[in-house]
Amino acid sequence: MDLPDLRRRIDLWNDLIVNRLRDRARFPVNATIYRHGAIPIEGRPDASLLEFALEGLERYHASLGRFSFPDQQPLISQSLPESPIVRRGTLPSLPVVDLPVRMNLMRFYSDLIGELCPPGEDGQTFGEAAYMDAEILLNLYQRVNVGRFVAQVKLEMEPDLIGLVSQPDILRARLTNHEREQAVITRARDAAARHFLNPDLFERVFRWVIDETIAIEVRYLQRMAEDGNA
Question: What is the pTM of this model?
Answer without folding.
Answer: 0.91
